[in-house]
Structure formats: C-alpha cells, structure tokens
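Here is the promised in-class demo. Please do not try to memorize the tokens; focus on the logic of going from shape to residues.
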C-alpha cells in the first residue's frame, strides 16, 4: 500500500517537468541547455536522473561545471559555468582559444585583438578543438593568467615565453617583465596593481620589471 501510494505521488501529473530554469550562461542560451539535457517536457519530475543530465551537460565542450536540481512542483534548475578562453595560441595560420585548463575550445582564422592575450614562444604539435595542450611553458602562463581577475586579461595583448622567462605587453604597448613565474600569485597581484594604476594615472612607461623585490618602472626617454 505504501509503495502504491509512493508511485501515485511520484507519477502524479502535478510533479511533471514544465520548465527548465537555467542560469549562469554567457554565450549559451536556455534553448541550448534544453537541447543538451535531452529531457522531455511532461516527463515525471522524479524520473529525471539529475546525475545523468549533469553528465550530458559536461560532455559539451562549452560547459565547465553543471549543477542540476529538481524543484517542486515542476521545475528543473540548472546552474552552468561556461568555459572561457584566457589566451589565444597561433598554429599554422590559425588561432586557437584556450581555457585556463589548457583545453582548446575554439578556433579562428584571424586573431581577436583586444579580448584575450596572444601567446608566443610555446611549441605546439597539431592541435584541434577539444584537445588539451600539455606544453609546460603554456601551463606556467595559464597558471599566471588563472591567478588574474578576468577583467585584466583584456588589458594584455601578448605574452611571450623566452629563455625560461615570460614577457608580457599591455594593449598600450608597455612591456611587463614577469621573470620565471616562480611566484605566480605575487606576479598576478603586482600585474593587477600596475594595470589598475596605469588605468587611473597613465604614464609614459617603456617597461615594468617584476623580477626584483620591488617593481622597477623604466620610463620612455623624451625625444626632443
């Protein structure tokens, strides 16, 4: 009797899926999420396997994290964290967008300047969308960029790995000598402070050097 009552409760028309409420997306749409989920409106809410739906979402390259919950009486609540590119890597006249985990998530025929920095000085074999890049130099740069707040990425136009050191360049043309990135958190903090200071008080700097205990700023020489 108890089992029968439970079945009646579970399969009651009151508890059927009527709406998928998705949040957290930037580029993906609600329609995209519904399609990836592969569920049918009108299905009994308690028959929906949230773990399985989460796996389907995570199988999409654009999704980094997915949390799926049932919500009475008739909702499926989904919170998405999208993968976002942090660098662009050039290879064979193509430009590949790479996320903080080293995963190639998009490709372009031309660089998209002013959005995320381009990387030079890393060795890449043939790469395709969906590949995870294992280059050690790139891993160091990604570790640094992951420690930066995302808003500052657009202030960097280029990062170059040369002789075990990393040199960056801002969109304003100021060179940032980051050194060997042995202290990623500190270098990221110094970079953020410098970019914020320059934004508030523009200076005619040639480069800033973070290899020393205190940042050293070399000003451009005035041409008379």
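The designed amino acids, position by position:
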């Amino acid at each position: 009797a108890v089992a029968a009552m439970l079945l009646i409760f579970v399969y009651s028309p009151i508890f059927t899926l009527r709406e998928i409420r998705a949040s957290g997306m930037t580029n993906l749409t609600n329609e995209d999420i519904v399609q990836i989920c592969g569920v049918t409106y009108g299905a009994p809410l308690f028959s929906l396997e949230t773990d399985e739906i989460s796996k389907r979402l995570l199988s999409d390259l654009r999704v980094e994290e997915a949390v799926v919950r049932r919500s009475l009486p008739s909702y499926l609540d989904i919170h998405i964290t999208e993968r976002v590119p942090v660098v662009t890597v050039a290879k064979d006249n193509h430009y590949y967008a790479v996320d903080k985990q080293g995963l190639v998530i998009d490709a372009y025929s031309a660089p998209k300047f002013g959005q995320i920095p381009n990387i030079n000085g890393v060795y890449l074999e043939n790469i395709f969308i969906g590949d995870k890049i294992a280059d050690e130099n790139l891993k160091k740069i990604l570790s640094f960029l992951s420690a930066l707040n995302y808003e500052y990425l657009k202030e960097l136009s280029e990062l170059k790995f040369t002789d075990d050191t990393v040199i960056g360049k801002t969109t304003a043309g100021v060179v940032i000598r980051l050194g060997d990135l042995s202290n990623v958190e500190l270098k990221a903090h110094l970079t953020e402070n410098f970019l914020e200071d320059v934004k508030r008080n523009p200076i005619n700097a040639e480069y800033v050097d973070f290899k020393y205990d205190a940042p050293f700023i070399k000003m451009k020489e005035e041409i008379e």
